[in-house]
Design goal:
heterodimer, A: mainly alpha, MetI-like fold, disordered N terminus, B: MetI-like fold, 2 domains
């Protein structure tokens, strides 16, 4: 008893996690990170139009948001774009990631720099560039232009995830497969792809959330009839803060969080497996 | 890793389709904007290809230069605040008991995975005159007024005046810090985590106080992560568009808003293109500093 108490009292000089002031600093930091989102979600259940005083629990605004035809269309558009963008960018990104993992070639450094450019350059520059490009070619803005741009910025993210996954791959497995008489295709399908699978799933989930969440690039590449969910929420938010927007936002938060947690779970499962082996 | 020559077919199949997509839908658009930045605007707003630096000259006019200068300032203040808030947070996580580290990191990253628009919108709901913060202040005001009324000073405070917290530069800075904090915490955490704690113990053993150790040992050792995180935050906040658009007022437009305006209401694409490329060059400069710094730190590690 006295031993545990003395243990508790003696905080080592480097045990910041157990120092009161550090706990306070961290509490304030996390409060700053969570207060806006949590209050937004909480007040989407508030049964009051003025949205300030807590009047009781209601799902009324969720019903309103779900029955809002414009929001509905925007949401369907978003899902469609995200699905197509995910399918294409996962395939292309996986190819790119695999090539970067596998091959040595002249000019690889600059090539890598170029390929990763969409991750680092300001979104506004990509957005206006896409707008100028489609306008130059007289391609009408719509679902097509949004999807194509989403694929372009998702490819590098998928490639990074795939490459990280392949870093733990043992090339001897492929050599063994070739030695045992499988041809290159069979080896690729039966050895490389199964190993890559967790990376493909994680990359696809990332591409899906990136597309679903994107506002800036979509804003510049969308036409009048092709509003996505974030663009619609943006136009609603510009006018007023309503519980309906809070409800719509909360739905989107729930979707992206679920997808992210799924991606993280897949990643941690595969690292644990690798750690065991 | 094998040479591309050993399997040219596989190399071509794997690299050509994604490269082609990126060339057509990423690089080509940027090239067009680059060409536009030297173009002239016709009387109806159409683009006449030319070779003029007039668009870049216009960026140096005072009204535009002041916006660019303000963007740099806002980015600098955002970066400083991210460091001030993020460093203790990263340190707290890095020195936390092992089993708490990953959950705490996840807590930092989780808000960052929710939609940028929604995170920014959440601050509107917090800061507006009928927002959560003003409501909290009003409640506080009423409590104090009620307490004063008990001692007979009922008119001392007067009615509650909500604070104008939204649509100014401070709101923009708060929003930018909020959105970019994880980009600082993660790299700083990564270096603090790898740091050999024996150095810190040595500093304490040799008689340094906590503050002296922090300034002369911890921060210098964590410098690569700090520099990398700060540069990342400054790139991202310099090029931001949505946050100043939603939280800022007329006085707090940033370069991103100026670009967007040229491509929408003003319809002056050549000028917008020139501004985009100025922003891109600034981004490349910061990235180059970051790469040079990363190269130096790996070189010194190897030595």
């Amino acid at each position: 008893m006295s031993a545990t108490r003395s243990l508790r009292r003696r905080v080592g000089p480097l045990e910041y996690g157990r120092k009161g002031w550090m706990q306070l600093v961290m509490f304030l930091g996390f409060f700053f990170l969570y207060f806006p989102i949590v209050s937004l979600v909480a007040f989407s259940f508030n049964d009051s139009k003025r949205n300030i005083v807590w009047q009781g629990f209601t799902l009324r605004y969720y019903e309103m948001a779900l029955n809002n035809q414009a929001l509905h269309t925007a949401f369907t558009n978003s899902l469609f774009i995200a699905t197509v963008s995910t399918l294409v960018s996962t395939v292309l990104g996986a190819m790119l990631g695999l090539a970067l993992y596998r091959f040595r070639f002249p000019g690889k450094g600059p090539f890598e720099g170029w390929v990763h450019l969409p991750i680092v350059i300001p979104e506004i520059c990509m957005g206006v560039a896409a707008l100028a490009f489609f306008a130059r070619l007289d391609i009408p803005l719509g679902l097509f232009t949004i999807t194509v741009s989403h694929i372009a910025f998702s490819i590098p993210f998928v490639a990074v995830v795939i490459r990280a996954r392949m870093a733990g791959f043992d090339m001897a497995l492929e050599e063994a497969s070739l030695d045992l008489g499988a041809n290159q295709w069979q080896t690729f399908w039966n050895v490389t792809i199964p190993y890559m699978l967790p990376g493909i799933v994680a990359g696809a989930l990332l591409a899906f959330t990136l597309s679903l969440d994107d506002f800036v690039i979509t804003f510049f590449t969308s036409g009048p009839g092709s509003t996505t969910f974030p663009v619609k929420v943006y136009s609603m938010v510009r006018f007023s803060v309503t519980p309906e927007v809070n409800a719509a936002s909360s739905i989107l938060i729930a979707i992206t969080l679920t997808l992210t947690v799924a991606a993280l779970a897949i990643q941690s499962r595969w690292t644990r497996k690798r750690g065991d082996a | 890793m094998e040479s591309w020559r050993r399997n040219k077919l596989a190399f071509a199949i794997l690299t050509l389709p994604p490269s082609a997509w990126l060339v057509v839908f990423f690089t080509l658009p940027l090239v067009i904007v680059w060409l536009y930045s030297f173009a002239e605007r016709g009387p109806q707003g159409q683009i006449l290809l030319a070779f003029t630096f007039a668009n870049y000259d216009r960026a140096l006019e005072w009204i535009h230069l002041s916006i660019i200068w303000k963007s740099v300032w806002i980015a600098a203040i955002t970066t400083t605040l991210c460091f001030v808030i993020g460093f203790p947070l990263a340190m707290g996580i890095a020195f936390a008991p092992r089993r708490f580290k990953n959950p705490l990191l996840l807590l930092v990253v989780l808000p960052f995975w929710t939609n940028l628009l929604i995170r920014t919108y959440a601050w509107i709901a917090v800061l507006r005159t009928r927002g959560f913060l003003n409501f909290g202040l009003e409640w506080l005001h009423d409590q104090v007024a009620g307490a004063l009324a008990l001692v007979g000073l009922s008119d001392l405070l007067g009615p509650f005046q909500p604070l104008e917290l939204l649509y100014n530069q401070y709101a923009v800075i708060i929003g930018l810090v909020y959105v970019h904090l994880p980009f600082l915490v993660l790299p700083v955490y990564a270096t603090l985590e790898k740091l050999d704690k024996a150095y810190l113990e040595a500093a304490l053993d040799l008689g340094a106080g906590q503050w002296r150790m922090l300034w002369t040992v911890t921060i210098p050792l964590a410098l690569p992560g700090i520099v990398s995180g700060c540069l990342l935050v400054s790139i991202l906040s310099l090029g931001s568009f949505l946050t100043p658009d939603l939280l800022g007022g007329t006085d707090s437009a940033m370069i991103g808003n100026l670009i967007a305006r040229q491509f929408s209401s003003s319809r002056d694409w050549p000028f917008g293109a020139a501004l985009s490329f100025l922003l891109l060059y600034a981004t490349f400069l910061i990235l180059w500093v970051r790469a040079a710094q990363a190269g130096r730190s790996t070189a010194s590690e190897a030595a």
